[in-house]
Amino acid sequence: MRSLLTALVLLVGLTTWPATAQAQDYGPAICAEYGYGAGFREDALVKAIAIGMAESGCRTWEKGPNPADQGLWQIRAYPERVAAYGDLLVGANNARAAYDLSAQGANWQVHWAASDCEDRGNPQCYAHWLPGAEQAAQRYLDDIAQSAVSMRDGHQEVFRLGADGQAWHKWWYGTTWSGWESLGGGRIASPPVAVSMQDGHIELFARGVNGDVVHRFWWGNGWSGWHSLGGRIVGAPAVVSMRPGHLEVFARFTDNQIWHRWWYGTSWSEWTPMGGGTVSSSPSVASMRDGHLELFVRGTGGDVLHRFYYGNGWSAYHSLGGRVTGAPAAVSMYDGHLEVYARGIDDTLYHKWWYGSTWSEWGGLNDGVVTSSPTVLSMAPNHQELFFRGQDNAVWHRFYYGAGWSVRHSLG
């Protein structure tokens, strides 16, 4: 079988198997790699993997009861379809066809019976395969893999989602990094994001296992438990504080628009839609001073979109250009300054900046391959700390002290 498939590949001039896979391999990892290559992202990638498992066990060579149904997603091999995509027993071809026929993952029902079945006990339903699909998709998820916060100059905390589904962190108090430690408290469904309103205080937010926003906090003597702030979100939330006693939380809801809620020292507001149109990543938000917020997100065209608030309402989105994967990250080192970072479609880091009058062009950081969106913080003027996931799935780090960037090093 393998030699036959290899021969087919040579005929069409395409690669049948991912570099990391062999012909006898199958399962969620295969659908994940081909699906990501075809363009499926975030929740659409997870569902694509689950449907592939229900339809074929994610076997590239699989033929259905109807021999015309072929490959990972059981694409029916009509002559015009083969003419458009090539041999549908080739994984890349099957994935491209599934991506187009499902409207980029937005409409599976017309073509795939498995996509309309919610019975988690039935292996012929996509819902049965969702846990494994989510795990396989993890390395390809576009949004952040880690977050970071500083309570004061000389202190940093980095947070990530552990393999056990719990929040983990490590910290720096001016001399050396700690090891990774679990915060416990229960499972979450996104990497946690952190903010500090004042010294000795951290607020942590994440997507919960029910799709809501969950929240916990530290006031210097231990962590609270998680509690729900409601909502139905995609990806990870974003949070910012303009002053002590004030929090703003932003999240991409399942309608693909940004919603937010806020805390002014006594109680939480309700979730409110911000309008402005649909987006395709989790948001990032920064504040240069009290009363001023800057919001960044990936647009549906793959560019970075930006809007701002100066105390009397939000601007419309406008494009900062770029071709990026996943959520951008933003930071302000001082009033009048912004830096925006993003993972490009070539899986390297780019940034652009604002010094009070105009935006720079996008520039590369020459940092090698990265596998997540970045996270950035500032502990003091002219000081930035940048974090991202490397090809080894570890968190990597580099810093800027006004005279150029350090080399990157691993935090494990």
From TrEMBL:
The keyword Signal applies. Residues 152-411 form the PLL-like beta propeller domain. Residues 1-21 form the signal peptide. Coiled coil: none annotated. Residues 33-109 form the Transglycosylase SLT domain. SUPFAM superfamilies: Fucose-specific lectin (SSF89372). The keyword Secreted does not apply. This is Repeat uncharacterized protein DUF346. Keywords: Signal. Gene3D superfamilies: Fucose-specific lectin. It comes from Saccharothrix carnea.
